[in-house]
Amino acid sequence: MGQDHATGAGVRPRARWSPTRHRAWGFLAAGALVLSACTGGSDASSGADGGGDGGADGYPNATITIVVPFSAGGPTDTVTRLIAEPMSAELGQQIVVQNVEGAGGTVAAGEVAAAEPDGYTVLMHHIGMSTAPTLYPDLPYDPLEDFKTIGLVTEVPMTIIANNDFEPNTLEELVAYVTENEDTVTYANAGIGAASHLCGLLFQSAVGVTLTEVPYEGTGPALTDLVGGQVDFMCDQTTNTTGQIQAGEVKAYAVTTPERVANLPDVPTTEEGGLAEVQFGVWHGLYVPAETPDDVVAALTAALQVALKDQNVIDQLADLGAAPVAEDRATPEAHTELLQSQIDLWRPIIEEAGVTAS
Ligand code: ASP
Questions:
Q1: Which is the closest atom of ligand 1 to the Cα of 220?
Q2: Which has more pLDDT, 24 or 354?
Q3: Around 295, how many Cα atoms within 13 Å sit in the side-chain half-sphere?
Q4: Dihedral (CA of 276, 195, 78, 112) sign
Q5: Are residues 213 and 255 located together in one domain of the fold?
């Protein structure tokens, strides 16, 4: 488990594009349908400054931990640290971010499901929350039964990127190269059920290859290895890859969205590169253990909604090719509805693909 470096706080066990711009939900569903063809550390986010009203019935009166299921410095971590600061100010309490890596995010989710349901342990997770029940037959929690949703946070496009010395220079060349070199090409992911894994499945399904996948505890360290040449290529969120693409530290073959991403204007879409089937976006949301009181959930939702209107959050997400969701999606109702529909959408797709973590 990653430790929060500011406080050492751990998970407390129980005593027992603009999305509108990029039509994100549409492309997410499209990506999922394409898969059906598949056969084959950091510091605390911020200190409280007493800016909020303290939430429901005295809550919060202690430090809140947001658990991130992947490595520090990766895309999920980046989004979490961005929103933690204005949430902290709104709630009038310190929020620390803790990275609990492993098994495509399921280790962290399992720990939060079993944590004290008091609003002081919160989970940030992404699309992997909806695919884990099918990918992991022995999952020790139920995403719908063992959590309450707080609200959706962002929708993030993905990019297909490679080490600069990797031979192919375009998506077409990549397809030809992996087809000819199926046995030697390596693909990085953040574990089974991670967005990078799911996007890789889509790619391999579309191209008709089975590549050697190299798992990491998050795409932060995967990107480091990719830049260093230890692994050839991967598909990851713009919130992790934009800086390296803009700096020319990696080559970018495509964005997995129907339209180009505003701050990566030279990167073609997968459709332009001849792989229209590979369309994929990543939604994120916040969760608490199922028995958390409703007024505590309401306080967290209110703080999330304030954070998503924070100009710094909006600007920084835009710089990374992403955007906060609209306020009516940063609610438990919209979040639960999406989670349920995504579980239903992905289950038959993954079963047909024959992918499991066992
Ligand atoms: N979001 C990344 C993935 O799912 C992992 C990470 O945040 O590090 O691949």
A1: 8
A2: 354
A3: 7
A4: positive
A5: yes
- How many folded domains does the chain comprise? 2
Average pLDDT over residues 60-82: 95
Q: Do residues 97 and 190 share a domain?
A: no
Written as one letter, the residue type at 161 is I
Does residue 50 surpass a pLDDT of 50? no
Residue 329 contacts residue 176 (beta carbons within 8 Å)? no
Give the number of the atom of ligand 1 that is nearest the alpha carbon of residue 219: 8
The answer to whether position 277 is within a domain reads yes
pLDDT by residue (tens digit) across 194-244?
899 989 988 998 899 999 999 999 999 999 999 999 999 999 999 999 999
My answer on whether 130 and 179 are in the same domain is no
Task: Name the residue at shortest CA distance from atom 7 of ligand 1.
Answer: 76
Q: Could you tell me if the CB of 70 is within 6 A of ligand 1?
A: yes
| pLDDT tens, residue by residue, 17-36 | 222 222 233 334 333 333 32
* 204 CB within 6 A, ligand 1: no
Question: Which residue range forms the structural domain that includes residue 206?
Answer: 156-281
For residue 70, give every residue at least 6 positions away whose Cβ sits within 8 Å of its Cβ, in sequence order, or none: 76, 77, 99, 101, 105, 190, 194, 217, 218, 219, 220
Same domain, 175 and 222: yes
Is position 291 within any domain? Answer: yes
Q: Which residue has the higher pLDDT, 130 or 356?
A: 130
Region of 285 (left: φ > 0; alpha: ψ -120 to 50; beta: rest) is beta
